[in-house]
Amino acid sequence: MINDGKLFKAQIPERSLLAAPADGAAAAAADSSSPSPSGSSRRSVFSHLGPPASDKERAARERIDAQKYDVEAWEILADEAQSRPIAHATGIFELLVSTFPTAGKFWKMYAEAMIKASNDDAVRHIFSRCLLSCFHLELWKCYIKFIRRVNEQKGPESKEETRKAFEFTVGHVGMDISAGPLWFEYITFLKTMPISSPQEEAQRMLLLRKAYQQAVLSPIHHIEQLWKEYESFENTISRALAKGLVADFQPKHFNARAVYRERKKFWDQIDQSLLPVPFAGSFKEEQQNSSWKQLLAFEKNNPQRLEPALLARRVVFTYEQCLMYFYHYPDIWYDYAMWLAQNGSNDNAAVVFGRALIALPDATIIYYAYAEFEEARGSIKDAKKIYETLVSHEKIANSLAHIQLMRFVRRTEGIEAARKVFSEARKSPSCTYHLYVACAVMVFCVDKDPKVARDIFELGLKKYIHEPSYVTEYADFLCRLNDDRNVRALFERALNVLPAEESVEVWNRFLAFEQMYGDIPSMLKVAQRRKEALTGDDGVAVASSESSMQQLISRYRFLDLWPCSSQDLDHLAQQQIMLQKLEEKQLAIGNVQGAKKSQNSVATPPKNLIRPDVSQMTPYDPKPAGNDALVLSGLGLQGSTAMPGLASRAGLGRGPADDSSMEELLRLLPPAVKTFLSQLPPVDGPIPDVDLVISILLENEVPNPTGPNGSTKSAAATSGRAGRHAKRKDLEAQEEDDAALQSQAAQSGPKDVFRMRQLQRSRAVSNASAKRLQQSSTSSGLSAEKSVSN
Prior knowledge:
The chain is mainly alpha-helical. The chain has helices spanning 24-31, 55-66, 71-82, 86-99, 104-116, 120-130, 137-152, 159-173, 180-191, 198-216, 223-237, 239-267, 283-300, 308-323, 330-342, 346-359, 364-376, 380-391, 399-413, 415-425, 433-446, 450-464, 468-480, 484-497, 504-517, 520-533, 548-556, 566-597, 628-635, 644-649, 659-667, 671-678, 690-699, 711-748, 753-789. It contains 35 helices and no strands.
């Protein structure tokens, strides 16, 4: 259980060092906030700043106005701000840190610019704003550097303040895998602290031992070097005491080193140069998100076997570092808060949810998660405030927010209070028919009052009778009540007011109802009325509808049971696609004719008519097309995707390929392959699965062909004689090569021993290969003879 209340409430050690600037102008500059581009799409985020100082800055501003999270443009602005006077750069830095509040490198640039301008008060204010929400190692090093510079000006008595700042720093970012140099710097500082008494010397030794022991147990870079220095430190003080301390810490240190090696593998996959931007769907974002989640899972598994408090600090630190790059990801915030809640730190989980709402004010799912968390732990008032905040949010308030508030009030205050919420919510401009359905179903299922539920449906029908989905929901409710008479009346009322192109869903539901509750005459009557209603006076369908066969299949199917085969369904689907393409062509012809008749009016399809894009779809035709199909059939491309690159270039899968694309495909093949493929027989039908055919051949025994008069035996004998003849031929060739080599060596003078040895070695390899080939042929011949004799 985690009960560490200081995880999010750590205080800066010296208030005087990080207090708000006393200078009013500096405070105003530091507190200036940038306008949100979401508030006005035409207003620039740089409208409160002066004109750009260069063309490069102007171009970057224009890019950011067009795309708020243009990372490259922000990087350009940051570089420009570093080279500008602080008066001009302050506004840009404020925009940088407000757009990327967890980008440690921008905070570091901002602080360094103020340090360069000798504005210590502004530097203190910057660090007070960013340190506890941005666990960026380089930023914390900049903080230490600033503290040391400020305290050096005060004299030796300020060393204690610097030591506290070091403790504060290593306590927060000392677990960073790259924190080794920071620990060395801290230990070196402790060694150089002025000592004026034996008590101070003893105190310094205790601080050094504590720092070393913390460092050697942290899975970070340079952990082995830290261990060597720790051993030397203990041996310098007392060899007798060092033996016991080192023996005590050595197993823990070896465990930390093993964890470091595993931890480093995860960190090597993480890119720490990313900026916190919303999800854009790139592969790198997915890869980095996965890498961080793997690292988090690794830390949660506690491979170092830490105590609960230390484990909590380690996991919290990893989550905080992850949020530096995935600040706009609700799943990271939710996992963070729920991990804290599951480990007994409910207060810290509530803090995380609050931070998540600040980071993602438009993420409704975070509101629901936060409210659920508060309701689960018994904070009913806090949960209700969250729901009320959500429904009062002008940008994201919708019917779903009102529905969830109504359900929450029903759970906590009763059905009557929930009805009051419904009465207020139906007056909201964001209310839709979903609110009426939710309230009616809640009253029917919870309060067991069908009369009130029906009254709510009737109340909504006055306003949403033109919504087919609402009509079908009301019909389902009446079916629950077995009120078939009113179901038919509801369908008739709705169909009288709905236009034909919007009534398809209601007609389908009406037909399904008659099939379930009516008889054959009533069902056929509704089917005929549906056909007439969805067909115009000119005989053209005013809305996309199913064919007669499809209607028949729909009437007699049940769940996943179908009254026909899958081939029949595919055939009907192909016919439907061809019909839609024909309708589109007719529509296009009508548009052209209408444009010719009147230049001022353009014939356009109805606004409510939504059809899929089927321009690239065609029925599958496995038959070869022309002589060129012989090559494609042999190549395995006709009607298949065996070679998608060539098939796409030749137009395969979109219909018959033209001559030019076919020639281009054949030109890619070597002449020998082209000749071979042209001699293959065409494949009339589906291409066989090569792997399946090979597996069947391997599993079955293929009988040896036997002719009259023992033809197999004679063939085997011939094979054996041929092998012996080849062997004699190889021996004669070897003797001729040796003689030639010796004659050449005699003519050239001294023997070339190296060359002769290489030739003999290559000849031995070739002879061994020939011998294996002969043995295999001889064994196959003998087996054939044995099978024939049997």
